[in-house]
Amino acid sequence: MAQSAAAPKQVRFIITRQDDQNSAPYAEEFELPYRPGMNVISALMEIQRNPVNSKGEHTVPVCWESNCLEEVCGACSMVINGKPRQACAALIDNLEQPIRVQPMATFPVVRDLVIDRSRMFTALKKVKAWIPIDGTYDLGPGPRMAEKKRQWAYELSKCMTCGVCLEACPNVNAKTDFIGPAAISQVRLFNAHPTGEMNADERLEAVMTDGGIEGCGNSQNCVRACPKGIPLTTSIAEINKQTTKHMFKRWLGV
Hints:
Elements: E1 10-17, E2 26-33, H1 40-49, E3 77-80, E4 83-86, E5 99-102, E6 109-111, E7 114-115, H2 118-126, H3 147-156, H4 164-168, H5 181-192, H6 200-207, H7 221-225, H8 232-252
Parallel strand pairs: 1-5
Antiparallel strand pairs: 1-2, 3-4, 3-5, 6-7
Helix pairs in contact: 5-6, 5-8, 6-8
């Protein structure tokens, strides 16, 4: 007697959803046919094309953010099986099922997995995380950076403002105004730049205010969670040293 063909492998998802900013979150389960090389983003795309949950009910497509799909833009940050990470780099073959997908809790939810990252961008504005230039005319070649400094500065420049380090940090929450490790690391980056160092004191003053570097509890979750391997705790230690020197200079009137 001929045996029936084996049933196709299925992938189970339990997705935390939220209709809008004022709605209560709820969980919805989906089952998808397995395909080799699947990641969480391709699964979400499949749900978007055919929004039917595991009960066979037609539902509203899941909302999420993504852009580059190669772990560069930072847009697709979410919590996958309890870990904040990039959905584009989360391969189904490496995930335990059912795969639980949630929005990052540190940021307000806009809808489903879409979050409002304003807190992070406000922090970057607070510390002046940019190189100011006077006008758009040709200023000629910029100052050269020593190769030894350039090598570690390049590592800091890999930050893609994904927000994963803020999600992992226990000191970043709705009850605190801590700016988080990403902004502090950017202070180190721009203070090291030959042009950016002209505004170094302003950045140090910014991280010395409420919600600045004093908010770090040294849990070191950030450096373990960072998808780009940025030495965030090293940056925090360096900025702590810089702010201490700046404070003594201010007291001495130097």
